[in-house]
Amino acid sequence: MARKFESETDGFCCRNGQIQLKQQEPIPELKRLWSSMDADSRHFRENIRFFNGHFAFTTLGVSLDETYTNMRSGVYTFRAHCTIYHNVHSFGPSSRPEHLQLYFYDDDPNLDHRKAATKQLDQDVVKRLVDILKQNPYSQQFRSLGAHKDNLDDYRIHLNTDKRLDQRRYNRPVSSEVAAIWVEGTDLAKRFVTLYGNNDERHSIRVTSGAYDPLSYPLFYPMGELGWHPKLPKRNVDWDVVQNPRLSHDDEDDAEGNSRLCVSVRDYYCYMLQTRPAIFNPILCGARLLQQWAVDMYIKIESCRLRWYRKNQTQIRADLYKGVVDAITSGETRASAVGKRIVLPGTYPGGDRDMKKRHMDAMAIVHTYGKPDIFLTMTCNPKWEEITNELLPGQTVQDRPDIVARVFYGKLEAMKDLLLKKVVLGVIVAYVYVVEFQKRGLPHAHFLLIMDSNYKLLVPEQYDRLISAELPDKQKYPELYAMVVKHMMHGPCGALNPKNVCMQDNECKCRYPRPFNENTIQGKDSYPVYRRRDDGRRAKVRGKMLDNRWVVPYNPYLLRMFNCHINVEVCSSIKAVKYIYKYIYKGHDKASFSIDQPDADGNID
């Protein structure tokens, strides 16, 4: 039974018991490296992406945001653009062994081939990992080629991509099941990725292959355990049933298989991310490798969804979407230039139709109920006890993005309960909200609240009852004072810190510090100018003494309840409404590009 937070449903981890996968007993030495606080274990985890990349049987192909991925200080964030590829390379002649070729030489006690490729890593840890992975079935097959390394041209390796091992009983694969070494001239086997010894070809591992995970993350799957594949049966479903071609599709491109009988890709990885008593889960100890794995598997989930939409255009009635509006949007009027379009329906989260539908729904709410009265932003506090209590020894918040997301979801549900059921700000007749993630990884939510006519904010005196932009009395409200100083102080920026991230053209884009003001008034741009009295209250923030001019508007009750950044503002004009709705439904970053044919000289315009 997985451990769950109070806000999570019984079926969150395993669909109410429909999914049950046995997990391999950990290798003691590898478990020590994952969990111990010894110097070599810390070195292993601090450089885990390098270690995994070195021992992986595949090469990682991904466009990374190197601003965050390669940083040595601050918050580490693995951000991938587009998709992720895991390629296996043929083992043709090269100046030095690399990738899976390194395994050909692992029976050499000196391990010079490993040392040359891992000069920045602890060689004792490298040697331990070589010994650990000698039990890996892929490693065993590749090492067997070591005796033939001087004459590899005549050899081929066939990686088995079939899915015949039942992970509920957990039949550990043996070397003959995952790969085979063939001599040139023999017949090819079905459903094998073939690697040749006389070329440098690359082969991409399908996201639907059970070999995708163990080939790419051998330190998470040291025994070569299969990962997800479309024919992984649910609990109490007979293994032979899902293999019967009459009852399930026998298509390697089938991303989801039979959802009634088989485990979906989303449910599989949700299951793998759970904490279970007395079961060691190396994935949760993965630190930066966990971030890479989570992004990789999320892209796999999205790829499977998109694959389903591509193959089921008739089922989603795509022709109904292909109208005049789409033609105008595309800008293409030449019939000869129109290719096959794949339509994403409005049910696909984050797609163009989904975003447009949400925006139109939001504007329809305004048309029916009037403009929003309150704009509220809630940002995750990485030091919430619910997060820090779940961290394993030596872990930081950035090592557990799964816990951060789950705790924030629970807090978000609690916020909705306070606003909508307990009406702490007044009766709300309509609302919209959206959740986003900052570039540094922390989630935040934007709310727009439309109040009942009896609770409308019409005059500055009403603003002051809900919103404060001042430091509270430290003697009367010490806890609230500490929270305002910790969460609700902007900057410092401007002359106090001209290099702050909010600075543009030598000015703060958020317009801080704001001027002192004895009373709340309606501003010229229809935004309120909140009361900020020069009452002598000051606080030291990041080495500078700041006063009320630097306070971000907040609601004292909500700030005290959630102990995180909660910005509460009044929406006082239609102009503000349109801006905010556009802001919360602005959609994703896009790139427009075209591919042109080269001319006779090979040049591309």
Summarize the structure.
This is Helitron helicase-like domain-containing protein. InterPro entries: Helitron_helicase-like. The protein has 605 residues and is of the alpha+beta class.
Count of individual helical segments: 20
Strand order of the largest sheet: 8-9-7-16
Uncertain stretches: 181-192, 591-598, 601-605
SS-based structural class? alpha+beta
Bulk shape: globular
Task: Quote the beta fraction.
Answer: 5-15%
- How many domains make up the 3D coordinates? 2
Which whole number gives the mean pLDDT? 81
What Rg is obtained from the alpha carbons, in whole angstroms? Answer: 29 Å
Largest sheet: 4 strands, antiparallel
The helix fraction, in percent, is: 25-40%
C-alpha termini separation: 59 Å
Find the count of extended strands (DSSP E, 2+ residues).
Answer: 16
Tell me about this structure.
The C terminus is likely disordered. The chain has 2 domains: 283 residues, no CATH class; 233 residues, no CATH class. It is built from 20 helices and 16 strands. It is of the alpha+beta class and 605 residues long. It has a 4-stranded antiparallel β-sheet with strand order 8-9-7-16, with helices on both faces.
Record the SSE blueprint.
Layout: H1 28-35, H2 39-46, H3 48-55, E1 59-64, H4 66-69, E2 80-89, H5 112-117, H6 123-132, H7 137-143, E3 155-160, H8 175-178, E4 179-183, E5 192-196, E6 202-204, H9 212-216, H10 239-243, H11 265-272, H12 288-311, H13 324-330, H14 352-369, E7 374-379, H15 385-388, H16 401-421, E8 428-437, E9 443-451, H17 460-466, H18 478-487, E10 503-504, E11 507-508, E12 521-522, E13 528-529, E14 539-541, E15 544-546, H19 556-562, E16 566-570, H20 574-584
Domain Helitron helicase-like: 268-449
Pfam family, one: Helitron_like_N
Protein name: Helitron helicase-like domain-containing protein
